[in-house]
Amino acid sequence: MSFNSLQFLIFFPIVALIFYILPKKVRYIWLLVASYYFYMCWNVAYAGLIAISTVVTFGSGLLLEKFNEDTGKKKLVVAGSFTINLGILFFFKYLDFFFENINSLLGIMKVRPINNGLDLLLPVGISFYTFQALSYTMDVYRGEVKAMKNPFKYALFVSFFPQLVAGPIERSKNLLTQIETLPERKSWNYERVLSGIYQMAFGMFMKMVIADRVAIFVDGVYSRLHYAGTFETVFAALGFSLQIYCDFAGYSAIAIGAARILGFDLMENFNTPYFAGSIGEFWRRWHISLSTWFKDYLYIPLGGNRKGKLRKYINLIIVFLVSGLWHGASWTFVIWGGIHGLLQVIEDVVLPRLNALYEKFGINTKTESFKLFRMIKTGILVTLAWVFFKADSLSQAIKFLTRMFTKWNPWVIFDGTFFKYGINQIEFRILIIGVVILLLADLIRYFKKEDIGVFIGRQNFLFRWIVLLTLIFMCIVFGKYGADFDSAEFIYFKF
Under 8 Å CB-to-CB from 39, ≥6 apart: which residues? Predict the structure, then answer.
């Protein structure tokens, strides 16, 4: 069940209504049932994988508390929990990739390839709920949270439907604590519910009006690269940067808004990432829940920046290579992650020297113009890296970049060729309007330090309703959906 489906528009109001009708003590049971139903709408059998991950990590928490004084046994429990969960993740997500690379090596050695005989469907959101469950194991091991005694409350933590299939990847200290204190907390709040509705509406707008519209042009260029030149590929690269942001941040906005309506606060997942002045800052603003997960559970355990510069750079590269692989079983994702890791290393080496030069020549780095320059520079680097993320293969990514820099064709803007990749001039104008609205919202987020739902919620009554009705109108009239349009899947569902 996708957020941008009629099924969800029926499902969620029913879930919320019954949630507030039920006594507080049993509301978590209702949310657990609703969460499993939500997931089983994709594949009933794969709900069993969530159950397995839940049972393993819940049991691990109890054992870790039992072996509190025995460090050796605690490490074995953590190792067992990670082995089982990552083993399941590897089997369903990376096994085909593994055999594909083994067979490539065997082909070089003129050896018959291995046929694994499996045709596995990737379970939706498996990387997200696996990492969320494993974070609980580590938090209990470190003594940051106590082991849960109620298996159903813990099961809700792993499967909470607003953020189940594409995050934010929640931490036990945040979401699990809210689930435990649900009977004591005042969950209904009129202003809070309205704020959640505004947040959901804006997330729908980002997905349906912007992301799905620009995706038509981007996919058109990638599928017809033999025709495309510099202008088409540049706009397609910029378009994908816009698409993946609106698609993923749109999902997160809907998830945060839906949880807010139900009385839960999910962690922020995006904070105007394209306003970042460096690659490091970009990752403090983009997919924050995953970035902080890797920082807390991989980068710091590897030694972080505590063991010298060289070790810090090696750790950064490792983290981003793993992050790339987390996104998908393809070398293009690994290369994308490696590019971001390498760029951060370069920044760490070069920036101090650049700052010294700026100071020597009296260049004021605090001005708005200089900040804008840094934002544009970072945006270009991020956009070029996205080419590898989007491409189906390394050869396609190289072909895309080659045509971007070698086939100069400004005339396509004037002869109509530019509009033959699936999006006409009217659609393009609608897209421009959508981008302007998005820019205004991001400027509000950047300067006001609050999400758009909270900002709208504290305005006067007339302004709130004008904004809400405008967003709904644009989603209904200009949103991309219908029988002939596949809008059911968010990009990050396949991760």
Answer: 46, 47, 50, 124, 125, 159, 161, 164, 165
